[in-house]
Amino acid sequence: MQYRTDPKSGNRLSVLGYGCMRFTRRGGMIDQAKAEKEMAYAIEQGVNYFDTAYIYPGNETAVGKFLAKGYRDKVYLATKLPHYLVKNIEGAEKMFREELRRLQTDHIDYYLMHMLTDIGGWERMCAMGIREWIAEKKASGQIRQIGFSYHGGTQGFLQILKAYDWEFCQIQFNYMDEHSQAGLTGLKAAAEMGMPVIIMEPLRGGRLAGGLPKPAAEIFQESGYDRSPAEWGLRWIFDHPEVSVVLSGMNAMEQIEENVRIAEEAQPGCMSQEEQAVISKVREKIAEVTKVPCTGCGYCMPCPAGVDIPVCFRCYNVRFSDGWFNGIREYFMCTTLRNNQTNASKCVGCGRCEKHCPQSIPIRKELKNVAKTMERLPYKIARKVAKIVKF
Q1: What is the pLDDT of residues 292-323, one digit of tens each?
Q2: CATH code linked to domain 3-288
Q3: CA distances from 176 to 36, 201, 236 (A)
Q4: Which Gene3D superfamilies match (predicted)?
Q5: Do 52 and 63 touch, CB atoms closer than 8 A?
Q6: Contact, 228 vs 203, CB < 8 A?
Q7: Could you read off the pLDDT of 357-367 as tens digits, one per residue?
Q8: Angle, helices 119-128/130-140, rounded to nearest 10 degrees
C-alpha cells in the first residue's frame, strides 16, 4: 500500500480509503458479519482511512461495532456533521455525542462539515458559534483534524477554502467531473494550501465501473490494455499528485482486492498521453447518453411521496445507455413489482429532495421526464397485468 503524509498532522494516510456508505444490506439491514470481514481484510492490506457519516443509515453503528474489536487504533476514522440538519449549536453537540456513542470511540480523527454547497452554509454555522465549538472539541482532543466535504461550484469551493483554517477537505472528483463541482481547479487550490484532499465518488457511485454505456465500455475493451473500467477510473485519479486519499465504497472482496492492487501500483503521473486519449473518448461517449448525472448517493431520500429517486434515475439512464427494453424492464422490476410502488409519477413536486442533492439536479423536472419516457403504454399494460396476478 502507498501512503501520503498529511502535512497538517503528519499522519500517514493510505491512498485507498474505505468508504462505509455502501455496505451490503439484507432485508434493509447492514450485513454486519460480511462488512466486518471486508473491513478487516482491507486493514490487513494496509487501508487505514475509514469514512462514514451521521446520515448513512446504520453505518456509524456498524463501523463502531467493528472497530471495538481491536481495530480502532489501526485506522484514522472520519465522520461528518450534517450542518443542514443543525438548528443551533446544542443540536451540533447532541449529534456529535451520538456519533461518538455509535462509533464507540472518544475521538474522531478527521471530522467534516458534511456537504457544504456554498459559503452561505458555512456562514450560517458560524453565526451559531461553530468556530468556538470546533475550538473546544479540538482542545479536548475529541476532534483531531477538522475539514469539510463539498458539493457545489468551483467558486463556492474556493470561498470556503479561504473562510477558515481548514486542515483537510473532501471533494467529488473523477474523469467525468474534472471540470464540475470543485473540479481540478479546486483540487489544485487546496493542495497549494498544504491541505490533504480526500476524493469521493471516484467512480460516480459505480456508474464508471459496471454501469458504462456499451460504446464507452467497448473503447476500453479495444484499447489494448487489460484493465477493468474501475481500474481505468482509479488510475486516472491516482495520476494526480494533489490527491491524498481516494475513497471507495467497497462491498465485495473482489472489489477490495482489485482496488488494493491498483492503489499499490498507480503513481502520480502514471497515465501516458495514449491512455489519457482513451479516457477522453470514453468521456465523450458517456456524455452522449447520460440523461441525469445522479450518483445514487441517496441524499434526496426518503421521498415523502414514496418515489425511489435514485432508482428512477438509474433506470432512466439505463434506458439510454443499454437500450429501451433493458431500461423499461429494470424500471418495472425496481419500482413497480413491489408492495409499495416507487415510480416517478408519484412525485407531487414538493421539492424537498432538491435541497439535499449534491449534484444540484432539478429532480422534479427530471422525474417528469422519467415518467413521460418510462411510463408509456407498454409499462401501463405490464402494471395492470401485475395487479391482476397480484405481484
Answers
A1: 988 878 889 999 999 999 889 988 987 887 67
A2: 3.20.20.100
A3: 32, 10, 11
A4: NADP-dependent oxidoreductase domain
A5: yes
A6: no
A7: 988 999 999 99
A8: 70
